[in-house]
Amino acid sequence: MIKMVKIGSIIMVLLATCMLSKSANAATATNPYIWADVPDQDVIRVGNVYYMSSTTMHMNPGVPIMKSYDLVNWEIVNYVYDTLESNDAQTLSNGKNEYGKGSWASSLRYNNGTYYVCFSSSTAGRTYIYQTKDIENGPWTRSVIQGTYHDMSLMFDNGRVFMVHGNSNISIVELTADATAIKSGGLNKTLITNAGSIAGSGGLGAEGSHFQKINGKYYLFLISWPSGGMRTELCYRSDTIDGTYTGKVVLKDSGIAQGGIVDTPNGKWYGMLFQDSGSVGRIPYIVPVTWSDGWPVFGASGKVPSSVALEAQGDTSKKIYASDEFNSTASDSELMENGGFENSAVTPWTNTGSAKISLNSQEYSSGSKSLLVQNRKNTGDGPKQILTGKVKALETYTFSAKVKYTTGPDTKQFNLCIQNGASYQGISILGSSTITKGQWGTIQGTYTLPANADLSQNFIFVETNYVASPNQTNDLMDFYVDDISFKTSTAKLPLVWQWNHNPDNANWSLTAKSGYLRLTTGKVSSSILDARNTLTQRTFGPTCSGNVAVEIGGMKDGDYAGLCAFQSKYGLVGVKMSGNSKSIVMVNASSGSAVEVASVPVTQNRVYFKLYCDFKNRTDKAYFYYSLDGTNWTSIGNTLQMSYTLPHFMGYRFALFNYATKSTGGYVDFDYFRIQ
């Protein structure tokens, strides 16, 4: 019966989607074009496709990459990282957290076939630059710069790379040509002093840099919020990158500001800005831009229009929030590239130590080529492939490799290894095999990446067994490798979901019970705010609701599980287990302290919860309901007066949770999450 309900729901969603797509014939956008929390957006165009990055701070995976064909209808296609760091603040350990911190204000750029995303983290005290050739699939490689470069913006200009950053005083620093580090002796100076003064004095100094080169001139877009004023869009320009910048206010309307501009394939321009909008968060607006005397002119008569004509109509069914039936199935994902060595070059394989690697068409296990390894000076010298950004802690991988050698002892042990981190102390032997001379042998097995693995640098390599004083004949022989594989088989959550802080991957599953999301408690917590594996996605306006079905038979004494309107001053409806008894409770933390407002005993093991949010005219109220059959709903508790708080610095989110207050190991199974 339950699965029939699921099928019926899916059919209804598909019909609604078809009706929506067919009715949206007019190429017109209504502001805000996304009524949800999408702050600090940076938008680029590559061909006829637009990509956008945004800030999600303490949520993981982090820095969403969104895609659109019309600047209005967006879908999430990737994230830049799964987790940024794994210290106490990121794992909600030892009383620490990174609410409102994490990654801030990313800069997204495309240059010569490579996508770049740059951002800083005040938690880590670092600035990160990620690169990829494939923005929708990765993998990403990362570089770390010590120190936080506030609200930076990348610029690629005539073979050089720059980063503009700062608050009030806006500076520029030159990076190395590969955009991985600060360039020694490169350009490093203040471009503009007290940049916000053109809008007024006091308040928030100018920040939020978006640095662009347009028709040979350099444009720097900033936001300022002077005392007694509102969020205001500024623009500075110069004829040279490090020359004299003159500026003006380009938009002062309803606090809509902060962002750059982007052009269409037909040469029209739009500003991509956002507005603080109460508890739903910071919501994006699209603003037409024209040009006058080399200056961008935003809006119509200084106002942001409520509707904007578009050149192209995208898919109106694309959203950055979605229902989920938790029916994801596991699939294999191969992480090795060119593992069969059938490409025309050895890349992305490189060498460790002094080893020389080359393609060989005389010896191969399958296909027509293998990789020949020569010139070894140490037993660890051999072929390697970097997996940084591809592997995850606590994920299990299946590996295999074919190895052959033709000179030396009759048998020899070969190892397939992984190094996690920059130090050799992070080396683990994945598997070993004793190979017979002149024959292809196989190394194979499974490997689970440790919870505390260093993910800053990861690579696979092949070696012979360690010997302190290796012999050229017995230990450093040439050898061939072929058919190297390193794959994972996992069920993945849709990209609309993000975990609050780093997830504990050992304690959630989409496969423990088919068609359900299982959340298992892995730590004792004082409240939902320091609990791990709280799964979230954005609420949205003008109104929205989300409901869940959850099976609670696996809970333990002291556990809480259910559905939350998640922010610092949260509200939730869920099940509390005390001893051997369960009750449905509503908790309201709008005062800053959590208060259990209502409690209803429950004896069945399947219950339903619903949350309704009203953001119209910044009403910002949330209402909570429960059901024993999924059809008849009963209001519970009182109304949550939602409020946007700076400690979290994020709009309210739907959140699915299960946390323990006494002992770990209890679990619940969410059957679905459905939005309206």
UniProtKB/TrEMBL annotation:
<feature type="domain" description="CBM-cenC">
    <location>
        <begin position="334"/>
        <end position="454"/>
    </location>
</feature>
<feature type="domain" description="Beta-xylosidase C-terminal Concanavalin A-like">
    <location>
        <begin position="490"/>
        <end position="675"/>
    </location>
</feature>
<feature type="signal peptide">
    <location>
        <begin position="1"/>
        <end position="26"/>
    </location>
</feature>
<comment type="similarity">
    <text>Belongs to the glycosyl hydrolase 43 family.</text>
</comment>
<dbReference type="Pfam" id="PF02018">
    <property type="entry name" value="CBM_4_9"/>
</dbReference>
<feature type="active site" description="Proton acceptor">
    <location>
        <position position="40"/>
    </location>
</feature>
<dbReference type="InterPro" id="IPR003305">
    <property type="entry name" value="CenC_carb-bd"/>
</dbReference>
<dbReference type="Pfam" id="PF17851">
    <property type="entry name" value="GH43_C2"/>
</dbReference>
<dbReference type="InterPro" id="IPR051795">
    <property type="entry name" value="Glycosyl_Hydrlase_43"/>
</dbReference>
<feature type="site" description="Important for catalytic activity, responsible for pKa modulation of the active site Glu and correct orientation of both the proton donor and substrate">
    <location>
        <position position="151"/>
    </location>
</feature>
<feature type="active site" description="Proton donor">
    <location>
        <position position="207"/>
    </location>
</feature>
<dbReference type="InterPro" id="IPR013320">
    <property type="entry name" value="ConA-like_dom_sf"/>
</dbReference>
<dbReference type="Pfam" id="PF04616">
    <property type="entry name" value="Glyco_hydro_43"/>
</dbReference>
<dbReference type="GO" id="GO:0004553">
    <property type="term" value="F:hydrolase activity, hydrolyzing O-glycosyl compounds"/>
</dbReference>
<dbReference type="InterPro" id="IPR006710">
    <property type="entry name" value="Glyco_hydro_43"/>
</dbReference>
<keyword id="KW-0732">Signal</keyword>
<dbReference type="InterPro" id="IPR008979">
    <property type="entry name" value="Galactose-bd-like_sf"/>
</dbReference>
<dbReference type="GO" id="GO:0005975">
    <property type="term" value="P:carbohydrate metabolic process"/>
</dbReference>
<dbReference type="InterPro" id="IPR041542">
    <property type="entry name" value="GH43_C2"/>
</dbReference>
<dbReference type="InterPro" id="IPR023296">
    <property type="entry name" value="Glyco_hydro_beta-prop_sf"/>
</dbReference>
<protein>
    <submittedName>
        <fullName>Carbohydrate binding protein</fullName>
    </submittedName>
</protein>
<keyword id="KW-0326">Glycosidase</keyword>
<keyword id="KW-0378">Hydrolase</keyword>
